[in-house]
Every structure is written in structure tokens, then in C-alpha cells.
């Protein structure tokens, strides 16, 4: 249901994660060799799983508790993705001259986590509203 605010937040997260694949931090050394790129299987799998969880969460709009759990799982997945980014950036040797073209790529999982938390708050608010209406019956 697109009229719910959490669905809008989840669509934004899907777009951010799609953009993350395009704007992934790419590090190139002075010879033109790609040190870290978006072709790494672990990073590709984590981004794909995050997008898949968001799409499944959007489709489960009638099951608010399941949406809440999937969003929490997606938050954990984004923290793992952020950890992989930081590990890859810190694992590079400091002696080589490296041209960094990361741009906003490292920040996108953080922005995604913020939107997932906002979606969870909206889902919780909807669940509380449904429970309060059920008490009145």
C-alpha cells in the first residue's frame, strides 16, 4: 500500500541500495588496477539481499510484525555491509598511492539504516493504532 509512510521509506531504501551498487566505493591504484570495486561477490550479495528484503517487506504490508522483523534484519545487514566497506578501506596498504573515487558510496548504508528505523517507527505506530481500535470493540 503506497499510501502508508513506511512504504515510502522502504521504497527510498530500495532506491538507495540500488544507487549503492552504482556508486559503490571504487579504489584504483596508480597503475589503474581496481583494488576495491562493485564486482566483489560478498558486497554484491549483501546489496542484493538488502534490496530483496525491502521488496519482501513492502509486499507484506498486511503483516506488520513480519515487516518489523524483516526491517530489523535489513538494519543488521546494512551494518554488516558498512563493516565490510570499512574493513576493505582499512585493509589497503598505506604505502601505495591510491586514487579514491568513493564519493557518497560509504554513507549510503547509514542513510539506508536511518530510513529503515523511520519505517520501523511508522510500522510500530500503525500496530499501536490497530491494537487501540481492537480494545474499543
Report on the structure:
The protein is mostly helical. 69% of the residues lie in helices and 7% in strands. Strands 2-1-3 form a three-stranded antiparallel beta sheet, with no helix packed on it. A hairpin with a 4-residue loop joins strand 1 (27-29) and strand 2 (34-36). Helix 1 (5-22) runs antiparallel to helix 4 (108-136), helix 2 packs antiparallel against helix 3 and helix 3 (64-91) packs antiparallel against helix 4. The two termini are 25 Å apart.
Present the secondary structure layout:
Blueprint: H1 5-22, E1 27-29, E2 34-36, H2 41-59, H3 64-91, E3 98-100, H4 108-136
Antiparallel strand pairs: 1-2, 1-3
Helix pairs in contact: 1-2, 1-4, 2-3, 3-4
Explain briefly what this protein structure is.
With 137 residues, this protein is mainly alpha-helical. It has helices at 5-22, 41-59, 64-91, 108-136; strands at 27-29, 34-36, 98-100.
Shape, principal axes of CA atoms: elongated
Order of helical and strand elements: HEEHHEH
Cα-based radius of gyration, to the nearest Å: 18 Å
Strand count, sense and closure of the main sheet? Answer: 3 strands, antiparallel
Averaging pLDDT over every residue, what do you get? 82
Q: Strand order across the biggest sheet? A: 2-1-3
Low-confidence stretches: none
Helix content: 55-70%
Q: What structural category arises from helix and sheet content?
A: mainly alpha
Count of individual beta strands: 3
Key attributes of the depicted protein:
137 residues, mainly alpha, 4 helices, 3 strands
